[in-house]
Batch of 2 targets.
Target 1
Amino acid sequence: MRSIIRCVIVAVAAVYSAIAGAQTADLVLINGKIVTVDDRFTIAEALAVAGERVTAVGRNAEIEKLKGPATRVIDLGGRTVIPGLIDNHAHYMRAAEYWHREVRLDGVTSHKQALEMIAEKARASQPGEWVLVLGGWSEEQFTDEKRGFTKEELDAAAPNNPVVLQLIYFRIYANSRALAALGIDAASPDPAGGKIEKEANGQANGVLNGAGALRVVLARLGEVAADKMVDNARALMGYLNRVGITAYQDMGGRGTTPAHLDAFRAAAAQRHMTVRVFYNVFVEPMNPADVDRVVARIGELKPFQGDDWLDLTGFGENVYVPVTDNLLVAAAAPSAPNMEQWRRVAQAVADRGLHFNIHAQLTGTIRAFLTQIEAINQQKPIKGLRWTFSHLDQVEAADLARMKRLDMYAQIHSRPSIQGALMLKVHGERTYHMPPLRLIRDSGVPWGLGSDATAVTPVNPFYTLWWAVTGKMLGGQKVLEETIGREEALIAHTRANAAFLFQEGNLGALAPGKYADLLVLDRDYLTVPADEIKDIRPLLTMVGGRAVHGSLSP
Ligand SMILES: [Zn+2]
């Protein structure tokens, strides 16, 4: 008994001295429900910030003691605070290029409303300016009419502007102005990898199928001036702050150019970052000659030379384009010669000692990649490099056991939140276990939740949390059986994701020493009905103790 009392006294003294020793706060948040997402998932009432970092978390009375004459006080009025959400995998640098022309249909469940949003953007644009929807939606998310868009209704919505809607990566809907701007008429041949749909009279009907059609459109949009790209990068980061993202890992993506990174570098140089961006080098080798060049480039990469606003973490998610798999095909069977080229790239990454992110969705590719990585690991151990498989929709228990032995990590994404209905057509019943969230959670492989935005999923991280907890796609259809609890989903979208960014000392929880990156929510994530998780909005978003979105003043 006496020893228990002594332990309690020592523990209380330790807490007291931690608080007494803390410096005077620049900012305190009091009277809240602070979900710290620390190792014990502690819930606190109040939090103190000095400079950019959290200095103390505790009871109101304890934190009040840290106030000085110049300390700002935010009364949370009982509201819930969570750490800023970290997206472990997204393509926002690329998305910034045409952000000023883009309409996002993220979470819009009415076809009619989608058309109205396109019309509104057209009215706010100069005649002839493009109106773009570059993915992040699916026809199945609409609850009024589950379908795409006809040329005629897009003409009516935007009579003076070319309009294109990109459907994931496999279709374009275009209006008459867009077809004219793209030079597509009755006589046009199909582009490589694409098909121009025709009406009975031979005229293009506005539907362009295939990834080739997408390339044709993007090639005609024209370059965006460098300073406009910087404006767009800032605007895009503002959008991320509004939905609760304060840090993410960028994976480049098809069509990525150095100009995309330059825009964020310029924003960082001007101290205009409001999201912490950690990026990988993305390449698209198509053949062995490309691999030669990529291997040489990998040998020169130097990660971690930046700061906590913008830094290079490693290489990926693409390795060798001919074996990059696609969630909406039935199976993958990479050939031996292609896997030889894949191996050359992976070996170069291991030889350089780099972090590696590998896009892998289907059973066939996951296993083929694991076999290569096991062989590489015998010559050049990858332990500690946090080699990561992205997506893993069809991972199985045996694959996870191999990953665990290799010290690999897993990034899991909410692709089914818009693609679930399409996945059911391709994969049938297996879809309900894609990805097998509970199996992954219980595997012991470090894992986190992210989006893979902006083409193949929406951006909003609360949609991802909602999908993981309810198993529903936007529009309401149940597409995942292996749902998880909301606490573990939140950990997977915060603390767990800090590891992919090599930022676990700085990010992912509200604890002394970490950056004050946090969200004050409009409702309590832990108690709101599960279906409302997707509707949660940050009232206030802070990055490094600075408000970057919203306020709590009435
Ligand atoms: Zn991706």
Target 2
Amino acid sequence: MKLAILSRAPRCYSTRRLREAAAARGHTVKVLDTLKFSIELRPRAPGLHFRGKRLSHYDAILPRIGASITYYGTALVRQFEQLDVYTPNSANGIANSRDKLRALQILSRHDLGIPPTSFVRRKEDVLPAIEHVGGAPVIIKLLEGTQGVGVILADSVKIAAAIIETLQSTKQNVLIQKFVGESAGRDIRAFVVGDRVVAAMRRVAQGGDFRSNVHRGGQAQAVELDPVFADTAVRSAQIMGLKVAGVDMLEGREGPQVMEVNSSPGLEGIEGATGLDVAGAIIDYMAGQVSFPELDIRQRLTVTAGYGVTELTIGESSNLVGQTLAESGLRSKDIVVLTLTREVNVISNPKSSRVLEPHDRLLCYGKLEHMRDLVPARRKGKPSKVRKLQPGAGSPAAATPEPAPPLEDLAP
Ligand SMILES: Nc1ncnc2c1ncn2[C@@H]1O[C@H](COP(=O)(O)OP(=O)(O)O)[C@@H](O)[C@H]1O
Ligand SMILES: [Mg+2]
């Protein structure tokens, strides 16, 4: 495999180890500075230049995008996606995981433990939000902090409210999050590669700090991971669209609580604590996957006018209840069922013999017009005629009055 590691820090431990692991396995590997690319956009020909020269073909990239260059870095990864170059972490995955709010929003619809969290804007909503997540002590977090910077523990509601007000007055967005006290300065970092955890460590904060980040002096030790934690980590990474990820989980009373999913997790702490060749595991995984480039499924499935993806829910009294997928007639209406979600279980590519039950959710691809017919009337919406603006609607129109439209134009 010809591999490019996208990194601004060729000499840092993680980059060095990844390059060594790739070279030791006989791959061709280059470390390319993320900010030295230029992205070229032409019809039918997405292109890339590196240091002013056209980039030669690569089979795979491994993005190591730091928080300070998320925008450019994800734009670059997206460009490689357009060129069908394999990446274990998609541009969307990196962008979604980088923002702690966005990541928790995406995770929150799944059956995964996350600390109760609020995001509010109005001053009068701050106190109720603190109460909703469990009252003081409470965690206040900047959306894009790393290495423990921007994570604050406020002992009282008064202090919390003052901190939030101060941060908001400087235009910073903050999360209000339950302080998972029983985890007491400890957390679990699970290193996910593909669909398994290849290494895991427990980090313990030092000197009375509640933050266990290795960069804050947290001491790391290898752990034999409880299967529930391993499963939570793998599913979180999968949901975020990341095949290489460091998943941070608190050890809550009710099990793992995912705090964040890191798309460029450091290797030094985890390899040091576990003595495992994590870099090698990443390279081996990529070499096995290189013929399956990451693709933006939505982008690819919505290119034909009139076709799209939607989720249909089987109602209690739907006549589809009790029918198999084959009997449902969906296929003959040009609708393909991609997944079936029953309670919290997702069945991929459900068989035609699968019998439908009330509340099943079908992720479908097909003709929007036919799918619309299957949605209960309340949610149905045929495209309506675009009406003419009434004079006086919006100030510019009012300034230049137009003759009133004939009545029939306004009739439904
Ligand atoms: N809700 C919480 N309850 C208890 N401890 C927390 C909570 N959120 C974060 N921490 C502690 O702070 C550390 C940093 O938080 P995290 O959300 O991972 O941000 P960062 O991106 O800075 O690592 C965690 O590793 C954990 O030790
Ligand atoms: Mg963290």
